[in-house]
Amino acid sequence: MKRFFIIAGFLLLLALVCVGIVGFNFMRDAGIKQYFATMKPPAATVSTVTVKPSAWTPGIEAIGTVNAVRGVDLTLETSGIVRDILFHANQKVAADAVLVQLDDAVEKADLVAQKAQAASDQAALTRAIELQRRGVGTDATLDAARAAADASAAQVNKLQAVLDQKQLSAPFGGTVGIPKIDIGQYLAPGNAVVTIQDLDTMRVDFTVPEQQLPLLKIGQTIKLGTNLADMSFAGSIRGIDPKIDPASRLVSIRGEVANPEGKLTPGQFVQIRVELPQENNVISVPQTAVTTSLYGDYVFVVEPAKPAAAPAKPDEQKASADKVAGDAAKPQADATKPADNAAKPADAKPADKAAGDAAKPAEAAQQPALTISQVFVKLGRRNNGMVEIVEGLKDGDQVVTAGQNRLFNGMSVAVDNTIDPSKSANKQVQQ
Question: Would strands 370-376 and 296-304 be described as parallel, antiparallel, or unpaired?
Fold first, then answer.
């Protein structure tokens, strides 16, 4: 019987231990779950911008190709052997300057012979006129002499033109390219010799959709560059095609721009922006503030957090603070009585430090807590890193411009505007 009670007591103790272990684990898991459920994530640091109406310069953006206002590939009208090349690559030449000389020995000899024949025919015409004046010459003889003289003069002009075709001259002043021929080479009519381009003034050809055609007019300002961030060239529209391409529904536009430094090159790809009249009171934000998703475009708006509980009354806070300060001052006063005057400043320093440390949490508590809310917006036009907000924001809203990737609706945030993502890093370092 005694043995039975010992075994029963042992089993009861073992059951109690097992129940205790299971209960402990259950309470531990419940506590951990409650802790993580009530734990608030730390505030994320973001940069913001305050929305306010501003002036907006709309524009029409397009891509185009640059060409010289005057530029051609030069060829010869006649065949022959190249005798002289009178230019070098990238040389600036004047109008009518001789660039290439073909062998013209035969043409010069023919011209000299024809000039001699023309002089003989002119002398015969003079004698016929004199005989006609004296009455001893016939009209037929005079007419024949006059016809021979005119034919000889015309032949001289023809041979002179043939001789001039042995030279290639610049049709206008400009910059010549790399020669495509060599001395001694035989050239046939139409062979390309060199290109000449007038780089002082350039034209740019581009197309715009037919819906934007009513916004364009002759003389309108255009800006162009290699990218939208560097629109360093300005010009104007010189031509608008009166016909819309029925296949692409695009209309061709031509503009002109000065190129005094020669930075633009014929055939170069450029991005173009046609400036439209300025508009006022337009809501816009940096493009970095807008996030695109499958559900639409949205921004994060910073708002003051809603208070979780009613704060303590100011009178009660003041009374408790005075009481704590009084209790803390009594031991310090009792301890400083036996000390000399030299020890008083040393005893005051820890008290000042403690007061400063106590003031820091108070200042942090006075700063309003901030949260964010996700607001879907309707976007409009874009210009210089800014995007127009047609719907969704109002004047005075504080919008997040950096750090959106780790944010979610209702999250606590801390604002730090020392870094502005809309500016380049070099400019911020200089500032």
Answer: antiparallel
CA atoms of 165 and 161, how far apart (whole Å):
6
CB 190 within 8 A of CB 244: no
Distance CA 211, CA 250 (A): 9
How far, in whole angstroms, is CA 231 from its chain's centroid? 7
Q: Which two tokens stand for residue 298?
A: 């949205």
CA dihedral of 367, 372, 378, 383, whole degrees rounded to 10: 50
- Which residues face 46 on adjacent strands? 415
3-state SS assignment for residue 55 = strand
Half-sphere exposure of 296 (CA within 13 A, CB side): 10
Pair 71, 197: CB distance under 8 Å: yes
Among 401, 394, 405, which residue's Cα sits nearest to residue 417? 401
Q: Is 169 helix (H, G, I), strand (E, B) or coil?
A: strand
How far out from the chain centre does Cα 312 lie? 55
Q: Which two tokens stand for residue 334?
A: 């009792």
> Counting beta carbons within 10 angstroms of the beta carbon of residue 110, is it exposed (0 to 12), middle (13 to 18) or buried (19 or more)?
middle
Q: DSSP secondary-structure letter at 410?
A: T
Give the pLDDT of the chain (431 residues) as one tens digit per residue. 677 778 777 778 888 888 888 888 888 888 888 777 776 667 888 888 999 998 888 888 899 999 999 999 999 999 999 999 999 999 999 999 999 999 999 999 999 999 999 999 899 889 888 888 887 778 888 889 889 999 999 999 999 999 999 999 999 999 999 999 999 999 999 899 999 999 999 999 999 999 999 999 999 999 998 887 778 899 999 999 999 999 999 999 999 999 988 889 999 999 999 988 888 888 999 988 999 889 899 999 998 877 655 444 445 444 444 543 445 444 344 434 433 443 343 343 444 444 444 444 444 444 568 888 899 999 988 887 889 999 999 888 999 988 777 888 888 888 888 866 555 544 444 44
Q: 225 with 231: CB under 8 angstroms? A: yes
Q: Which of 223, 234, 274 is closest to 258 using CA atoms?
A: 234
Query: Order of strands, edge to edge, in the sheet holding 167-169?
Result: 167-169, 98-102, 80-85, 186-187
